[in-house]
Amino acid sequence: MFHTKFNFLHVVFFCLLFSSNGSLFAQIDNSFLSNDITVNETDSGKLGFNITVFNFLRNTEYFNNIELGRTLFGYQVSPSFSFQPTGKIKIQAGVFIRTDFGGETKVIPTFTLKTKHNNLEMLFGTLEGATSHQIIEPMFDIASAIEKRIENGFQLKYKKPKTFFDVWLNWEKFIERNSPFKEQFTAGLNYTQLLNKTTSKLKVYTVLQGMLSHSGGQIDADLTNKLTMRANTAFGLKTSYEINKNQKINFDAYWLGYNDTGDTLVFNNISYGWNINYGAAIFSNISYQYNNFQFMLSYFDGSTFLSPRGTAIYQCQSIDNPKYTLPSRSLLIPRLMYNKTLFNQVQMSARFEPVIDINDNFYDYSYSFYLKYYFEKIFK
Question: Yes or no: is domain 8-34+117-371 CATH 1.10.150?
Fold first, then answer.
């Protein structure tokens, strides 16, 4: 059962959300980390080439029992060729290369068939994944843009000025008969709807998000691990108030749920009085943006909350020692971010993000720096 206490911080965040005279990204704007495939009517019958260069440094100076810190430092290069047989279909094939400094280089082939009709897009193959899904941090790890950028499967998207809809299936592990491991896939949903006019200075959005993580199958030979089916949901509201062209205030708040319907449950710790298969949390953000600077204050309060694809610091179970669990988490995260486009081509983001654990009275922090260059050429 959800035990989270509605203390003073909860009241402050929700009052600000619903009563303020305050973009789609009320949470952290990670849009520049994403790579979307464009389909243009005018490019029918044309060949194209594009390349993305993404440099990353993400260092988490964490010394807590839920997540120990580490450093991700390296680059990604993604060259690909494309062809549009018609104005509504695009075929793109290439290669994804990731190099971790002092570590290994990984090379993964990519292939996408994308169709677009009016505002409806369908992808089969390599998806517009990771931060392109715009899922909130407790349910989708920010480091996925570095470690799990490549997703393969099926995706359906619907995009209008007032609507963003994304549903996808990422097939992560394929099995043959008698494979020594289970098949794995993740399914997701994001539906965000603007409730008022796009020209309004004060914008209000409703948000529905869901994630389903599955491990199972009928033909594998894995007798140790049981079937898992873990679901996360989020319901929320966002508001955005544009003070002027240089300043913006954003508020957003969500209720999050966790449910395990598989054969094995993560939480079953009698010493804490747990014998349950679900949890819940509240996640809220307040941010002020001035030109390229953004200051954000995030608050998270969760009870027996778990998200298999979420950012680890929000979980009630340690990723380093799965036997270590906590009945609840209460975090305060002030963030300072600087985003800027350099030379009209290179996008840069620098971030400093302390983490204050209210329950256990510890302070950790992380910092990150990203550079992205994208080039596309359509041959006439």
Answer: no
